[in-house]
What we know:
Enolase-like, domain 1, 5-stranded mixed barrel, 5-stranded parallel sheet
Amino acid sequence: MDEFDVVVIGGGPGGYVCAIRAAQLGNKTACIESRGALGGTCLNVGCIPSKSLLHASEMYSKAQHEFKDIGINTGSLSLDLEKMMDHKSKSVEGLTKGIEFLFKKNKVTYLKGHGSFDDQNTISVKELSGSTKQIKAKNIVIATGSSVMSLPNIEVDEEIIVSSTGALSLKKVPKKLIIIGGGVIGLEMGSVWLRLGSEVEVIEYMDHITPGMDREICDNFLKILKKQGMKFHLSSKVLDVKKTSTGATVLVESNGQKLEMSSDIVLMSVGRKPNTEGLNLDSAGVKKDQKGRVLVDKKFKTNIKNIYAIGDVIEGPMLAHKAEDEGMAVAEFISGKYGHVNHDTIPGVVYTSPEVAAVGKTEEQLKKAGIEYNVGKFPFLANSRAKINNDADGFVKILADKVTDRVLGVHMIGPDVGTMIAEVVLAMEFGASAEDIARTCHAHPTLTEAVREAALAVDKRAIHF
């Protein structure tokens, strides 16, 4: 029986990063992945393929509607959806093979199969070839990620009623797409198919989209998406979805009335659940909470001293970069070193156009906690680079402690804010004040000047607005 210092169950962003870091620190390491390709949901059917389609569809939309405004005449345009999908698939394939190369480089043993516990030190691996083998491990990291959820009694067939996985591989542009759920994934996929020619309607149970984000951002985001042509049914409950000969019908209850809506495709985007079933955690004695998440301490250790868990299977936002940070930290804890994850500075991004990005506390959270704060806002409409790029929707908003001026939260909607958020994440990691950002020179003309101006606005001294 093969024996390892560290075995990671799951080869997604958290798992493969953990395995590589553990090997770098001198541990004999193995990583078990059942998909047959490394990178997890994010790389195979999530972050990466969706960003490929978001980028391609945005280029198509700009060529259709915006190029002529800056003197570029393209003539007639046509969409080759098959080629667009092929480009997405080749990008994914190249990146997954890149992780395999990194495993070989760092001497990580890659086991293709499904791992489950026999006891706290023994794992059975049901290999993709059909055979089963056992391995021993001094330390085990659970990094099995999450999977899509549906509503009760509604079956996702990935043809007519699809999850984000099916929405990434549609064979043709649907005439109409109904999205159940106004969260990040639904709005990103809705943006793709809207740009490619679909009529898109979103049904959201809450009275606002992107629940959990700063409400001012949510409201502004909603207005922009409506202006782009996306339709919304807020405070609406989906009662049933039925397939028909031409697509599907969705039964919705809104404002006390029932409404039946028809669509070619229905995208189910109501959240994700941790992948803890099938791991046989009981055999190892690992405890879970009521939501099926693995319980861990501050060092990501479960109630069993040699078993750890990271990423989507534990509490917190289901984000690839959170899982990566936790994976590196766990590898360092196991190796007797210090691991660091500041969960108060994990950024979140929506990759629509404009993008939405946030880190730290929202205004609603600060009010609920009774923390006094100052607000600084700066619109991209007053930013020279955004203006010349004809991409000036949105604003930057900084929330700073009223007494200490320490930055408590930053919320942005606008061009390339998914990249811009890194500056303020770094600032918050170092405990910066709004004045620290305001006194930092920013190159001109850049979009990031909006961050400096928002920091100046905290003290009511913005220059350009």
